[in-house]
């Protein structure tokens, strides 16, 4: 299973699930060893199809780091933290998440848009 690490140690993603707000953006950066990239993307696409069918899902984009980077970043928009937490906690999603190798590290964080 992917190792979850917090970008902000004071506010891990599971604590953010308790905040009832929306719309939200989940920015999830993955460290994926080069030799695992294609296998990771195959599994991720299955997860993405599942998430796209969940209530409250809005959109998703995957990005790859440049210059031979081993980072991939998923940016997903959801109507609310509650919708994301429900989808994330579903047994089907958790079964798929367990298929990822242990050497992949995930840095998820939830954001709200602000005016600048």
Walk across the major sheet and give the strand order: 1-5-2-4-3
**Using only CA atoms, what is the Rg?**
14 Å
Biggest sheet overview: 5 strands, mixed
Q: Helicity, in percent? A: 25-40%
Strand content: 25-35%
Helix/strand class: alpha+beta
Number of helices: 4
Shape: globular
Distance between the termini: 38 Å
> What is the mean pLDDT?
95
Strand count? 5
SSE pattern, N- to C-terminal: EHEHEEHHE
Quaternary organization: single chain
User: Spans with pLDDT under 50 lasting ≥5 residues?
Assistant: none
Task: Write a brief caption for the model.
The protein is of the alpha+beta class. Helices cover 31% and strands 28% of the residues. One of its GO terms (molecular function) is monooxygenase activity.
Structure description:
By secondary structure, the protein is an alpha+beta fold. Helix content is 31%, strand content 28%. The protein is built from four helices and five strands. The longest helix is centred in the middle third of the chain and has 16 residues, at 37-52. GO terms for molecular function: monooxygenase activity.
